[in-house]
């Protein structure tokens, strides 16, 4: 019927058929345009980016965001069709109850996992809250062993807890002291008031006497503390051989500076999880106060090309490569690796993948990951010492870049 023909002689049916064919060619030729991109994998990042520990919280956040950027640039989660990671940000303000409420908010927003929360007290709250919805939770820094001894199946800690850290610290201090002829026989511990400082002081008070070092006093201080004069004068009066700080960054810096200003003489400043002793910012800004301080803390493997490359990348962004940065980076990477292997964002599947993880691309002195009840058994701290303005690893010998200087000569 000529009424159905166009000017060019094609019927309406011909044109429709041609259009369908053309659409088929487009679908084959330009699949990225027509196919929906995979849904992003949402990772909740909860850190104290305001409040008295904001420096460390922001360092954690930046490390976590670096990991997300690197994973996305490498193709995202390949088992999910290249799904990109998306960081959903939360601020605990340094308060456990706010950290818990941020978990609720981010779970409602659809996060597939959470990395939190720097301080032990905050991490106890965030992991407990995340457990209510069975949301995978990775601890970035929090060291209290209570975090992983409550039977929470959703919670994993990649770094060591302070039980292991305290034993490592005391054993290495004993080695250092004996190698120098055992000049240190007394110690004073100065610690911050929260779970981290209190727990660390309790463990050290128990362990040090067995090594022949008497703990003559333990002094607790508030967070924040803006004047350490009275505390330092107490130290000066009691003349301990060792001063052992356990504090967050701001208080640690102020304590160390006050010790120097008051010309306190001690054979050693030996911190455990010192908030500043293993910190490039402290060493750069206050080199005289930092010189020859020893610390037992989280640290990267200085012989690892992977760790050194990440350090270079962080510094190119204007960051100090502190333990907060690389621990948060690894927490995100560990979670992403589990999602990759699970091939799913199903919470149970991701948790099972973390529990069976042997991930080893971390640049830490750990070896492959081995999780037992949520704790990475291979994780260990190192001992560092600031020597001529450089943070050197002094123990374990396998990773050491220098020998310890003890007693102090400055």
Features:
410 residues, Rossmann fold, 2 domains, 5-stranded parallel sheet
Question: How would you describe this structure to a colleague?
Answer:
The protein has 410 residues and is an alpha/beta fold. The protein is built from 14 helices and 14 strands. It has 2 domains: 197 residues, Rossmann fold; 152 residues, Rossmann fold (3-Layer(aba) Sandwich). It is globular and about 70 Å long. It starts with 11 loop residues before the first helix and ends in a 15-residue tail after the last strand.
Gist of the model:
This protein is α/β, with parallel strands linked by helices and 410 residues long. Helix content is 42%, strand content 17%.
Overall mean pLDDT: 92
User: What low-confidence regions span 5 or more consecutive residues with pLDDT below 50?
Assistant: 1-30
Largest sheet: 7 strands, mixed
The fraction of residues in strands falls at 15-25%
CATH superfamily of the largest domain: Response regulator
- In terms of structural class, how would the helical and strand content be classed? alpha/beta
Helical residue percent?
Answer: 40-55%
Question: Mind telling me the CATH class of the largest domain?
Answer: Alpha Beta
Question: Any idea what the radius of gyration is?
Answer: 26 Å
Number of helical segments with 4 or more residues:
14
Total count of domains: 2
- Strand numbers in spatial order across the main sheet: 7-6-8-9-10-13-14
- The rounded distance between the terminal residues' Cα atoms is 105 Å
Q: State the shape.
A: globular
CATH topology of the largest domain: Rossmann fold
Q: How many strand segments?
A: 14
Order of helices and strands: HHEHEHEHEEHEHEHEHEHHEHHHEEEE
Q: Just name the CATH architecture of the largest domain.
A: 3-Layer(aba) Sandwich
